[in-house]
Design brief:
Layout lengths: L1 H12 L3 H12 L5 H18 L15 H36 L3 H30 L10 H11 L1 H40 L4 H39 L1
Helix pairs in contact: 1-8, 2-8, 3-4, 3-5, 3-8, 4-5, 5-6, 6-8, 7-8
Length: 241
């Protein structure tokens, strides 16, 4: 089942290059803040389609429209993610402060252990929290309905769900690392060749390589992974819902 979800998500994310470019433009201008919320809002719609869809179905990518609602949905996703992540961080900071005040170094280790465990739990729950919010008509409180979230996880299977999240994270990291490595390798070859012919062009070559690297990653890789993870997230929730 998990492999089928990954396969579906891979194919779903590659449906339309124009959508990748649109998301890529938003990602590229993410430093302006607002585009980031639009990207998250679009992912919200992808998750929604996944929740109500089927593995290996004929679901289409959502449209780019109604930007106000997409922006609001993106803010909701962002806030849920922040709240889940910030709790273990606060716990770690509390223990770090205790360590400084009491001069008992053991508090640092305790805080680190609790913080890491808390972060793992937070990530596992957040993967189901956002679809649960979407399933309940965007109700923000539904993202923290732990009773319902636990029910969905149990329906999927606790170990299977943990394996799914670990696999999703690893796949995302591997794709990002492989693409980065390939781009750096190609840039290195061309860079060395050009510099060998004209050593004075080194600064320009470096700048051009950085621009091309950022462009490809922002316009293709980042949006592809966003759609991939959103689709997989929606499908796994749909299994247990």
């Amino acid at each position: 089942m998990i492999l089928d979800i990954y396969k579906d998500a891979f194919e779903y994310a590659a449906q339309d290059i124009s959508t990748l470019i649109k998301l890529g433009v938003l990602s590229f201008f993410g430093f302006l803040i607002i585009p980031i919320f639009l990207v998250l809002g679009y992912q919200y719609r992808i998750i929604d389609i996944g929740i109500n869809g089927m593995v290996d179905g004929d679901d289409k990518l959502p449209e780019f429209n109604e930007f106000t609602s997409m922006f609001i949905d993106g803010i909701k996703v962002f806030l849920v993610q922040i709240i889940y992540i910030i709790i273990p961080i606060i716990i770690f900071l509390i223990f770090a402060t205790l360590s400084q005040v009491t001069n008992i170094q053991a508090f640092d280790l305790i805080g680190l252990i609790i913080g890491v465990i808390g972060l793992i739990i937070a990530v596992l729950y957040s993967f189901m929290a956002i679809p649960n919010m979407i399933k309940n008509d965007g109700s923000f409180s539904a993202a923290f309905d732990f009773e319902r979230i636990n029910e969905v996880i149990k329906m999927v299977g606790i170990l299977r769900y943990i394996a799914f999240v670990i696999g999703l994270v690893l796949i995302t990291l591997i794709i990002a690392i492989v693409v980065m490595t390939i781009l750096l390798f190609i840039a290195g070859i061309f860079g060395v060749a050009i510099i060998a012919v004209n050593p004075l062009s080194a600064p320009g070559v470096v700048l051009l390589s950085v621009v091309v690297f950022i462009a490809i990653f922002s316009f293709i890789v980042s949006p592809y992974l966003s759609i991939f993870s959103g689709r997989a997230n929606g499908l796994i929730y749909g299994v247990g819902a």
